[in-house]
Amino acid sequence: MAQIQITEVDINLLNPSIYNPRKLSEKQEKDLTESLKRFSFVDPLIVNSHPDRNNIIVGGHARYRVARKIGYKTVPVVYVNLTLEKEQELNLRLNENGGSWDYQLLKAFDISMLLDVGFDEDDLNHIWDDQFSTEDDQFDSQKAVAKSKTTEIKTGDLFQLGQHFLLCGDSTNLDDVKKLVGKNKINLVYSDPIYNINLSYDDGVTTKGKYGGTKVNDNKSDEEYSIFLEKTLSNALTVVNKDAHFFYYCDQAYIWLLQNLYKKLGIKNQRVCLWLKNSFNPTPQVGFNKSFEPCVYGTIGSPYLNSNATKLSEILNKEISTGNRSHSDIMDIFDIWLAKRKAGQDYLTPTEKPVTLHEKPLRRCTKPGDVVLDLFGGSGSTLIACEQMNRKAFLMEIDPVFCQVIVNRYQQLTGKEVVQCK
Question: How far is residue 351 from each of residues 75, 118, 132, measured CA to CA in Å?
Answer without folding.
Answer: 61, 42, 26
